[in-house]
Amino acid sequence: VLGNAHVSLFFAEGQSPSSARRALAAYAQAERVDPESANNPDLHLNRATLLQYLERFQGALEGLSRAAMLAPGWEEPRKRHAHLMDFLSRLCTLLANR
User: Quick one: angle between helices 41-53 and 57-70, nearest 10?
Assistant: First the structure.
């Protein structure tokens, strides 16, 4: 919950780097303190969303994959993973043709 609050501040404050750092730290602490959090697909999806905005694409893809693995019936992580892969593929193509 604390990580999500900092993500909200990140967007409300014009993508404040300090809010992003606090959110990532809160997600990491939640995983350390509560082993059940490590198996929470929402945590991985929310962190992946922040990582995507921070352009840390590898971490975002890993988080989306983890969320999809933890919640096999939940389509949202799979859709976001596919969209991010498509975006990165198009970006690579544009850069290669530059």
Answer: 160
Q: Three-state DSSP class for 13? A: coil
| Residue 73 DSSP symbol | T
Amino acid at site 45: L
pTM of the full structure: 0.90
What are the pLDDT tens digits along the chain (98 aa)? 999 999 999 989 888 899 999 999 999 999 999 989 899 999 999 999 999 999 999 999 999 999 999 999 999 999 999 999 999 999 999 999 98
Residue 8 one-letter amino acid: S
- Supply the DSSP string of 15-63, one letter for each residue: S-HHHHHHHHHHHHHHHHH-TTGGG-HHHHHHHHHHHHHTT-HHHHHHH
Retrieve residue 90's tokens.
């198009």
For the chain, domains (ranges, CATH) are 1-97 (1.25.40.10)
Which residue reads 């919950």 in tokens?
A: 1
